[in-house]
Write a structure and sequence with these properties.
mainly alpha, about 0% strand, Tetracycline Repressor, domain 2, 9 helices, single chain
């Protein structure tokens, strides 16, 4: 891993463990055993590092979307949820959740980058839910966008809350989200 990539990696870790305002370039330079000037060489400002971290997530989500493109909606949903599963495995919170907390204290470029990422995530999950409903796999009332917002907020909150309550609760929340999407249809079909 080159220095720039290592700085992004450490910055991301610190951001999702502590929050944007709770780390500095000094924390990164100590971790990598380099001078602060080396961090500033790659990222003149903390905001430029923040935008780079968000850009990495945009690429990762796009790669996951492409990777699952031909799969059924349930498989796409499971791929989508892998992002949260990976974060839970590392005992980190969601990047969006972390930055949303600090939204009004970060640079405008970061606010715009975060907005793009949120729109990308929401658009992808909304499309998955619409596809699943049209396939007869997912059953939910209301708009797919609203359901996507509910899924995302539940997963974001699950990452934070289950730091306290434990991994088992995270698995149960994730399972309940999937069961809710596919199980509701079974109840509806039984009533007809």
């Amino acid at each position: 891993m080159d220095t720039r990539a290592a700085i992004i990696h450490i910055g991301d870790t610190l951001l999702r463990e502590r929050g944007y305002n709770a780390f500095s370039f000094t924390d990164i330079s100590r971790e990598l055993d380099i001078k602060n000037a080396s961090v500033h060489y790659h990222f003149p400002t903390k905001a430029s590092l923040g935008v780079a971290i968000i850009s990495e997530y945009e690429k990762a989500f796009e790669d996951l979307r492409k990777e699952s493109a031909g799969a059924p909606a349930l498989a796409k949903l499971r791929t989508f949820l892998k992002v949260y599963i990976a974060a839970r495995g590392q005992n980190k919170i969601c990047l969006v959740g972390s930055l949303a907390t600090d939204l009004y204290t970060v640079d405008e470029a970061m606010q715009q980058a975060l907005g793009r990422l949120v729109r990308q995530i929401l658009s992808w999950l909304t499309a998955i839910l619409e596809e699943g409903r049209s396939e007869g796999m997912f059953f939910f009332s209301g708009s797919a966008r609203t359901k996507a917002l509910l899924v995302i907020t539940n997963m974001m909150a699950a990452l934070q809350l289950t730091r306290v309550t434990g991994k088992k609760d995270f698995q149960e929340i994730k399972g309940a989200i999937i069961a809710d999407l596919i199980g509701s249809g079974k109840r509806i079909k039984q009533k007809n």
